[in-house]
Specification:
The chain is α/β, with parallel strands linked by helices. It has two domains: 38-152 and 210-272 and 444-523, Alpha/Beta hydrolase fold, catalytic domain (Rossmann fold, 3-Layer(aba) Sandwich); 169-206 and 276-432, no CATH class. Helices cover 41% and strands 11% of the residues. It has 18 helices and ten strands. It has helices spanning 8-14, 38-55, 141-146, 168-172, 184-205, 214-227, 240-251, 274-297, 299-302, 308-324, 333-345, 350-361, 366-372, 379-396, 403-416, 421-428, 469-478, 501-513, and strands spanning 65-66, 78-85, 95-103, 115-120, 147-152, 233-238, 256-262, 455-460, 482-487, 520-523. Strands 1-2-3-5-4-6-7-8-9-10 form a ten-stranded mixed β-sheet, with helices on both faces. α6 (214-227) crosses α7 (240-251) and α8 packs across α11 (333-345). It is globular. It starts with 7 loop residues before the first helix and ends in a 27-residue tail after the last strand.
Length: 550
């Protein structure tokens, strides 16, 4: 399942192939009742009890202090590290350190502290270390008054036992060319590259590779809860973070206090993860249409065409041009596609993307080069996020191992959803030859033995990255106390946190009081962005990092 990392500023605004299997990759085969093994469940429980005991005397077992310069987090945000087992079946075996950040509850206007609110921004592969910075943003004052805002980097991410599968310099190289209709020869090339990438993950991670999983992320989350001195978890998860939250709630229903799940992944075990990724392609196609329809409505500004089909023709002209001569020497069709995939995620970027196409067709490639060129300074972060994304999704569940299945499914899908189908296929293709013998069995979210307290799911009706059907399925599985807030007619990924005041009021009320708005309620869509003139030099030019982040 993927989303795209778009940098800290955009994240804040949105808050929103067969290989020889090495011997070390084998995993114990006896499954526990809710996924994983009985030994892992016992080790996780023991680790959480120890963390709670360490936290009890002083009201917190984490030594928070000044954040390292590498985190780029100003005071009053503080940082700490949390030690967890690499393998929960061996709780006294090798341990790894996870980085944690916190901004203490402000207590403004006499607010009573309600505990820590932990956030996961998705991916898998995204870091939530920036989350405490939201305490200073408009609209977060009342939540920040009542809660410590706690972020963390999950295992493998950032400085949390970082995972890498290839040299970041290789990833940063451009231009790249993605054919619109991949030939058999190009498919063979990408198949070989996927196998090489999987081998690189095994070589660089070694014996640790099988332990990057959603189950372990959920276990880490419970240890973090205990180390914070919290009896129950308050949690906000976005995109992949909704699946993590659903798994946690299934494993530990009695430890859930408040849970906001934004832009929900479909948690049906039959869709985790191969079919979930197939489902994204029609979703992205709908959002690509929405972008083109918006551009067409603003033909007077951009001159790209008065219909979605005409805008598509303009985009095709740009694509053909950078296929012949990369823009700025760095932007080929691969970089172009990645930059415009952002338009299928966030309508905030629509003015910039439209302006860049228009300027290019008028003879000025600078704007397109600025927003689509690979960023060498972000190469290591992008490579790390992609590595974690790949490892977690590949470890979490079985994937088709035969290329014929991938080729058949994606060829059929590309006929009706060409925009992103093949790029998504090639991104996930290392899972076909993943060098871990025993994949996890996906947790049956909602199979917990006891009822959950009220939870809140929020979703945009036309979200492409996590199609709306996933929100309906997640709500169904969480039970009768789960409430769903839908932003009608909108599709930006990540609904809560500043785009839609109606949604934000429901989220704030729930976090502060525990009250949900009802089984299913709707909010009107947030306003579409205003067009930006080609002469408006104040227009932003977001530079995208391009790892997946659900």
């Amino acid at each position: 399942m993927r989303t795209e990392l778009v940098g800290r500023a955009a994240a804040l605004a949105a808050l929103s192939l067969l290989l020889c299997v090495p011997a070390h990759a084998a995993r114990p085969a006896s499954p526990g009742p809710l996924g994983g093994t009985a030994a892992e469940a016992a080790g996780a429980a023991l680790t959480a009890r120890r963390a709670a005991a360490a936290a009890a005397p002083a009201g917190g077992g984490l030594a928070f202090g000044r954040c390292p310069d590498a985190e780029d987090l100003p005071a009053p945000v503080q940082c700490a590290t949390l030690r967890v087992p690499l393998d929960y079946a061996r709780p006294d075996g090798p341990r790894i350190s996870l980085t944690v950040s916190r901004a203490g509850a402000t207590g403004a206007r006499g607010a009573v502290r309600q505990g820590a609110l932990v956030q996961n921004p998705g991916g898998p592969g995204a870091s939530g270390m920036y989350f405490p910075l939201l305490a200073g943003l408009p609209g977060w004052e009342r939540i920040a008054a009542a809660y410590d805002l706690v972020g963390y980097a999950p295992r493998g991410v950032g400085r949390s036992a970082p995972l890498s599968c290839q040299d970041p310099a290789t990833r940063a190289a451009g231009p790249t060319q993605d054919p619109a209709r991949p030939s058999p020869a190009y498919k063979r090339q990408r198949l070989a590259a996927a196998r090489a990438y999987a081998r690189g993950c095994a070589r660089r991670a070694g014996a640790a590779l099988p332990y990057y999983t959603t189950l372990n992320n959920a276990r880490d989350l419970d240890v973090l809860r205990a180390a914070l001195g919290e009896r129950k978890l308050n949690f906000m998860g976005a995109s992949y973070g909704t699946y993590l939250g659903g798994v946690y709630a299934t494993l530990h229903p009695g430890r859930v206090r408040r849970m906001v799940l934004d832009s929900a992944v479909d948690p049906d075990p039959r869709r985790v993860w191969y079919r979930n990724n197939l489902d994204q392609s029609p979703g992205f196609e709908r959002r690509w249409y929405d972008f083109r329809a918006w551009v067409a409505r603003h033909h007077a500004t951009y001159g790209l065409g008065a219909t979605p089909a005409a805008v598509q023709a303009s985009y095709a002209r740009v694509r053909e041009a950078v296929a012949r001569t990369p823009a700025g020497g760095t932007v080929g069709t691969g970089e172009l596609r990645a930059a415009y995939l952002q338009a299928a995620y966030y309508d905030d970027v629509w003015p910039d993307r439209a302006a860049a196409l228009a300027a290019f067709l008028r003879g000025d490639p600078a704007r397109l080069t600025a927003l689509a060129s690979p960023d060498p300074e972000a190469a290591a972060e992008a490579e790390n996020a992609t590595a974690v994304y790949t490892a977690v999704l590949c470890n979490d569940s079985p994937w088709p191992a035969d290329w014929e299945t991938w080729d058949r499914d994606h060829t059929e899908l590309a006929r009706r959803a060409p925009f992103e189908t093949w790029a998504n296929a090639f991104l996930n293709l290392p899972c076909a030859s993943w060098p871990v013998r025993e994949r996890q069995r996906p947790v049956a979210v909602g199979s917990q033995p006891e009822l959950l307290p009220p939870t809140l799911v929020v979703a945009a009706e036309r979200d492409g990255a996590t199609p709306y059907a996933g929100a309906l399925e997640l709500q169904r599985r969480l039970g009768a106390a789960a409430s769903l807030v839908t932003e009608k007619g909108a599709g930006s990924h990540g609904v809560a946190g500043g785009r839609n005041g109606c949604v934000d009021r429901h989220v704030e009320r729930y976090l502060l009081t525990g009250a949900t708005p009802g089984w299913r309620v709707t909010c009107a869509p947030h306003p579409e962005p205003a067009p930006v003139s080609l002469d408006d030099r104040a227009a932003s030019t977001h530079r995208a990092l391009l790892p997946p982040v659900v």
